[in-house]
What does this fold into?
Amino acid sequence: MSGVWRSRLILFALAGIPANDRRSALAPRLPFLTRFPETNMNTLDTHLEPPFAVNSLQPDERRFGKLHDYLSGLDRKPSTNAHLWRDADGKALGRYFNSTLTSVFQPIRTLDTGEIAGFQGYLRSHSETDSGLSLWRLLDYAASDDESIELDRLCRLLHTLNFFRQTEATGRDLYLNVHARLLAAVEDNHGHAFRRVLASIDVPHQRVVLQLPAITQNLSWLLDSVVTNYRGNGFRIAVNSSRAKEALGLLERVQPDVVKLDVRGVTDAASTEKLLRLAQQRGVQVIFKRVDSQHLLSGLRQFGHALGQTLLVQGHLWDVPESALANVPSSFLATTPLAA
It folds into this structure.
């Protein structure tokens, strides 16, 4: 049975289980996850303060010194009283719903040259072969609102640690999803807790872009408040859209720093060209995501050539999300000619 269908069957089975019983029901139904004794995730914030001294390197010899010190202070194996630990390679792992979780990253590239502008972080179950399953929807479905907030905070911390510990992160941005359920679950001051976490490990918040989910009609009333909160806490904002016309509306309403547009929905050439022109005038980046075929790539090249713009792209045509940050692979150079 494929991982997709296995997850669907688990979701169906959980649908009839009361919320308080889902946590205990989840572990025996997920034999592909490492299991650990349950602990209280409400202590996550207090666990974020590094309890150890800064290392002996001079400031100019250190890169994110407090972050590395924090990682160095983590246990090298899971324990019942720790939510985070690290493996032999230094990668941070976390526990949630008796599952072992970690991060993978997919590059965001400049179409002309393959140069990497940033990476998007994704949650995966831990796997020695770097082929873990995507579990967010499954775990989030089984969680209460408070537990969903804890899961989101754990994911952001894992992605931050696993991204900025790697030298390939230098000069590149980290894109993190904000999940739709979190918008309503957090009452106010969105981003404040995460800003404190970043400050405690000396990671500049300016390097993190928070991606808002596609906003459904029943959540649209939250949008202005959430954006104001995140901006007030110093974060850049990205919006996701499936169509260029919809993206134009978000460009006006949200005034984001980044627009991420699903390339499969680029069927309206006039709206797409208008979006690219307006975004360029306003200093807003447009990233075309889910590029997974030469056909889609050819259409993007035509837009870029016609408008004289360098486009940003993301997709499986070049990169599968992995725990190690990528550089320019031969597969990218094979599908995209270098600029003259």
